[in-house]
Amino acid sequence: MTSTAATVEEYLRSLPADRRAAISTVRATILAHLPAGYEERMGYGMIAYVVPHTLYPAGYHCDPKMPLMLANLGSQKNHMAMYLMTVYGDPATEKWFRQAWTATGKKLDMGKACVRFRKIEDVPLAVVGQLIARVPVKDYIARIEKFLATRPKAKAKPARKPAQ
Predict the structure, then answer these.
(1) Full DSSP string of 32-58
(2) What is residue 2's DSSP assignment?
(3) pTM
(4) Span 45-103, pLDDT tens digits
(5) Residue 38: left (phi > 0), alpha (psi -120 to 50), or beta?
(6) Which one of 71, 86, 121, 138 is CB 3.0 to 4.6 Å from 49, fit for a cystine?
């Protein structure tokens, strides 16, 4: 469920008490380990951790008006979730993350970048902190730039012939 909250504090106040406590705990872990340069703000109706346009003017390649996302944290209808873009498209980081999480004995419910959880006890906070800490802004930007350089360039569509 996306929120229309304008600030992180407003978003947190809108959550039920149990979810507010869980999201706040994960948030505190992320903030404690977030490398310099990233900013916390609202994005896509959730708490977002981003590379601001002041550091990466190109923004998110799918929507350049949006800053480049590192992670999102939100409350959905049936679960809470972390959207960890730092593991998406980086096989080495994804492998490390999956192994580190599993080594804690906690069950990992993960798609490509979405980690779902129902209660804070399901989240190995130390692993989340380590993941966030291991991606300095300059390295993340370099990885995104490398990825974008490998994508095929969009071909211009030929002009339509006028109807005769």
Answers:
(1) HHPPTT-EEEEETTEEEEEE-TTT-TT
(2) -
(3) 0.87
(4) 999 999 999 998 888 888 888 899 999 999 988 999 999 998 987 899 999 999 999 99
(5) beta
(6) 71
